Amino acid sequence: MIPLLLYVAIFVAAFFIVRLGARKMTERHDFTSLKTVTFGDESAVRPDRWASVISIVTIFLLWGAFTGSKWVPVHAPGPFIGDTQFTYTAEAPDGARDDATVFIRVFEVGADVTEPEIDPGDGFAKNDVITVGAWRSKLLLFDQNDEITRKDGARIVAIDGQPVEPGGEVITDAGRVAVTSKGSLNYEPPKGMQMEPIWLPPPEAVVARVAEIASEGYQNFTLWEHLGWSLYRVVLGFILGAAVGIPLGYAMGLSDWFRGWFDPIVEFMRPVPPLALIPLVIIWAGIGESGKIILLFLAALWIMTIAARAGVSGVNITKVHAAYSLGASRWQILRHVIIPNSLPEIFTGARVAMGVCWGTVVAAELVAAEKGAGMMIMVASRFQLTDIVIMGIILIGVIGYGIDILFRIAERWLVPWKGRS
Amino acid sequence: MTGLSIENISMRFDLPNGGHVQALKDVSLHLNPGELLSVLGPSGCGKTTLLNIVAGFLAPTEGRIVLNGHAVKGPDAERGMVFQQGALFEWMSVRDNVSFGPRMAGRREADYGKEVDHLLDVVGLRDFKEKAIYELSGGMQQRVALARCLANDPDVILMDEPLGALDALTREKMQGLVLKLWKETGKTIVLITHSVEEALLLGERLLVMAPRPGRIHTEYRLPFADMGVGQDLREVKKHPDFGQKREEILGMIWDMEEEIMGRAEEAGA
């Protein structure tokens, strides 16, 4: 809740700061800057680059601040680490009461810890000492060293002077102390507001993992082998899907018989999510490479078929008529008119297909694989290696985005007339 | 017999709702080589259908088209088309568009190159030949379409409202260009238009068609196209006969529109 409020606060504060201060530095003098109506004119809404930069910085800042990152100067309050104490009051069956102090040493999980030396004190309840890891809790059998134990009828009536019943709890300066239903104590030191690394590791831990897995590998394969295998499957599946789907789409756009024959199949398969095919593909082809390639082939096939079909139907009929009147044969019309005219549609389809394939390969690897980006994060999550999971998610996102950018560059280069006819 | 013959063309087809459309009824016409015919009529009179039948894109239900002694079966390079817009190939440069016909016929650059460059000169696009289509204005695009058609050296040029999408000034310039190309090349041209002025200016012969069913209403032989070759088109428009013919034809089309409206009202009532 607090990170969200902070995020909103930064969003609003940055808006006003940038509006007041930085606006003058980025002042533009192009045509759009002269438009007075921008609310409702989508073409006049341009992304504020300051907002983009601050947005990304804010995410890393909050991530670092709430995970105790060494890279971030400000931190949310961390878990308590050090020595503290609280007092409990025990009551004997005869009504006599005695106070005893519990000395606590809270240590960072993984660090060496020694119990502090203490004086047992006087009375029938003796002082106790415990060590607890940060973010953990500890059951304290307070009567172990007492003269009158719970068996004898002793019970706890107050903690730090506040009365308490079995099943109740008291929040003290030292942390939360609960009395269990059986009468023993359960102690939990203050957690602060930071996330424990097993839920969300700090950024530097993720970066360190990237370096470690890039050189040493994880589950028998290096990071680049995992990502490379995923990419290889996607590219191979996509190429096979396009190699079959594009000619099929052209055939459906050019021939009654093909259209009639394949329309029911394509229309049926189009809404089936590729993920729903994973179980069948595993039954038929196993969990090896061929199964994954078949799955990605099917994921790309229908998208590319429909894109090519739409490309053919998108040809302005006057272009085809013009080509016939200029003496072109059917084959020449296919080669010089229909194929170039359908390229924009095919590129759009290819971008969609690559996105779907990339998502499908990760999902397929989550289900079963020996290597691959999805397998890496799935295995890591079973061992609570959250840093590997986060690293994997970030890299999967970066690669997916990179693929899309490559397609956009290729599109601008190969079909410069797109959207301009 | 040389020239283009339109022989008793009728066209009738069924509608999905069970009715039918008589798009053309018994249209006959003969054009001698080098004649320039403009076709005018209210919308729905079948003039575009007739042009598509002559081009070979549609089959008539009765009658036939005969060009220089042989019947037309489908589209062919002997009958070139110029469309209103959108018929150029955006993925080719201006020059590749113009040389499309010769290239499809398997001719070599050495063979057609000079001709194509000459045509680009004639339509005033010499400096734009390597440009992309989408970089040109609408008027320039139509000049490319004209040059592309001429590069194929067709016997007949069919124009489907070629200047309809242009602004008034560009349109006037292009009308001059069409007349100039007609005189220089001596092609037979059929031109469909919505504009009475354009039909008068460019039509050596002028056909007014009537709707429902599409048929020939009146045919004129006009002197204005010949006059326009030698002088400014604006001078031609000032000619007293020009104004009188324009009023006559406008009145004729106006009456047809009124009649259609009246019939529609009757059907409604």
From TrEMBL, chain A:
<comment type="function">
    <text>Probably part of an ABC transporter complex. Probably responsible for the translocation of the substrate across the membrane.</text>
</comment>
<feature type="transmembrane region" description="Helical">
    <location>
        <begin position="346"/>
        <end position="367"/>
    </location>
</feature>
<feature type="transmembrane region" description="Helical">
    <location>
        <begin position="388"/>
        <end position="410"/>
    </location>
</feature>
<feature type="transmembrane region" description="Helical">
    <location>
        <begin position="231"/>
        <end position="251"/>
    </location>
</feature>
<keyword id="KW-1133">Transmembrane helix</keyword>
<keyword id="KW-0472">Membrane</keyword>
<dbReference type="Pfam" id="PF00528">
    <property type="entry name" value="BPD_transp_1"/>
</dbReference>
<keyword id="KW-0813">Transport</keyword>
<protein>
    <submittedName>
        <fullName>Taurine transport system permease protein</fullName>
    </submittedName>
</protein>
<dbReference type="GO" id="GO:0042918">
    <property type="term" value="P:alkanesulfonate transmembrane transport"/>
</dbReference>
<comment type="similarity">
    <text>Belongs to the binding-protein-dependent transport system permease family.</text>
</comment>
<dbReference type="GO" id="GO:0005886">
    <property type="term" value="C:plasma membrane"/>
</dbReference>
<keyword id="KW-0812">Transmembrane</keyword>
<dbReference type="GO" id="GO:0010438">
    <property type="term" value="P:cellular response to sulfur starvation"/>
</dbReference>
<keyword id="KW-1003">Cell membrane</keyword>
<feature type="transmembrane region" description="Helical">
    <location>
        <begin position="6"/>
        <end position="22"/>
    </location>
</feature>
<dbReference type="InterPro" id="IPR035906">
    <property type="entry name" value="MetI-like_sf"/>
</dbReference>
<feature type="domain" description="ABC transmembrane type-1">
    <location>
        <begin position="227"/>
        <end position="407"/>
    </location>
</feature>
<dbReference type="InterPro" id="IPR000515">
    <property type="entry name" value="MetI-like"/>
</dbReference>
<feature type="transmembrane region" description="Helical">
    <location>
        <begin position="294"/>
        <end position="312"/>
    </location>
</feature>
<feature type="transmembrane region" description="Helical">
    <location>
        <begin position="271"/>
        <end position="287"/>
    </location>
</feature>
From TrEMBL, chain B:
<keyword id="KW-0813">Transport</keyword>
<dbReference type="InterPro" id="IPR027417">
    <property type="entry name" value="P-loop_NTPase"/>
</dbReference>
<keyword id="KW-1003">Cell membrane</keyword>
<dbReference type="GO" id="GO:0005524">
    <property type="term" value="F:ATP binding"/>
</dbReference>
<dbReference type="InterPro" id="IPR050166">
    <property type="entry name" value="ABC_transporter_ATP-bind"/>
</dbReference>
<dbReference type="Pfam" id="PF00005">
    <property type="entry name" value="ABC_tran"/>
</dbReference>
<keyword id="KW-0997">Cell inner membrane</keyword>
<dbReference type="InterPro" id="IPR003593">
    <property type="entry name" value="AAA+_ATPase"/>
</dbReference>
<feature type="domain" description="ABC transporter">
    <location>
        <begin position="4"/>
        <end position="236"/>
    </location>
</feature>
<dbReference type="InterPro" id="IPR017871">
    <property type="entry name" value="ABC_transporter-like_CS"/>
</dbReference>
<comment type="similarity">
    <text>Belongs to the ABC transporter superfamily.</text>
</comment>
<dbReference type="InterPro" id="IPR003439">
    <property type="entry name" value="ABC_transporter-like_ATP-bd"/>
</dbReference>
<protein>
    <submittedName>
        <fullName>Taurine transport system ATP-binding protein</fullName>
    </submittedName>
</protein>
<dbReference type="GO" id="GO:0016887">
    <property type="term" value="F:ATP hydrolysis activity"/>
</dbReference>
<keyword id="KW-0547">Nucleotide-binding</keyword>
<keyword id="KW-0067">ATP-binding</keyword>
<keyword id="KW-1278">Translocase</keyword>
<keyword id="KW-0472">Membrane</keyword>
